[in-house]
Amino acid sequence: AQKITQTQPGMFVQEKEAVTLDCTYDTSDPSYGLFWYKQPSSGEMIFLIYQGSYDQQNATEGRYSLNFQKARKSANLVISASQLGDSAMYFCAMRERGYSTLTFGKGTMLLVSP
Amino acid sequence: GAVVSQHPSRVICKSGTSVKIECRSLDFQATTMFWYRQFPKQSLMLMATSNEGSKATYEQGVEKDKFLINHASLTLSTLTVTSAHPEDSSFYICSARWDLGIEKLFFGSGTQLSVL
């Protein structure tokens, strides 16, 4: 079974609107971390936001917020006030206790139009 | 923020040659670095975990004799693709783990390898 599922291969949004990118995860470990990365066409992976499984509040970083619903095992990324520069591939990832690296989802391509 | 430098960003080589890719953590020490491979429009697939001063741990299906990893210092890991073939053409990206308890991995900018 996939550990990280991103069901939206592509999303379109107009500039200045908000958009939600979906991510669900599967783990039996009570301690884990969830990450979102942005990969523009240049290829670099840019860290956006992190949510720990024990964090009581949803993580926020500027225009990015993570809608963490633990019981549903979902960690959706919300981008407010989209900008043209937000057009990129977005990856959700998880790190479980005892594992030093991340498991990535398949990604969602976001296109922001003027 | 922390910076990971990866070089070269792009390399074209002839089939049968070897290519070395460097991954450096510029402003922090990283006892653990990771090497990923990414095919077009696909996710990152972990190839191996590189630990400073010890042998790398390879994921299932990754040929350790083909993809040589050396992590000789706390700031440098190298991936050498030996006797490269066209099927090795891919985007390779490294990441370094911040060892100060902060849950972050920092990524290099990637290397696009094209084997002719």
Distance between the termini of chain B: 37 Å
Number of helices in the DSSP assignment of chain B: 0
| Number of distinct helices of chain A | 0
Tell how many strands the DSSP assignment of chain B holds: 11
Structural class of chain B: mainly beta
Strand composition percent of chain B: over 45%
Q: What is the N-to-C succession of helices and strands of chain A?
A: EEEEEEEEEEEE
Overall shape of chain B? globular
Unreliable segments of chain B (pLDDT under 50, ≥5 consecutive)? none
Q: Kindly, what is the distance between the CA atoms of the first and last residues of chain A, rounded to a whole number of angstroms?
A: 38 Å
Strand count, sense and closure of the main sheet of chain A? 6 strands, mixed
Helix content of chain A: under 10%
Number of strands of chain A: 12
Strand residue content of chain A: over 45%
Structural class of chain A: mainly beta
Q: Any idea what the radius of gyration of chain A is? A: 14 Å
What about the largest sheet of chain B?
A: 7 strands, mixed
**Which chain pair has the greatest contact?**
A-B, 21 and 22 residues
**Percentage of residues assigned to helices of chain B:** under 10%
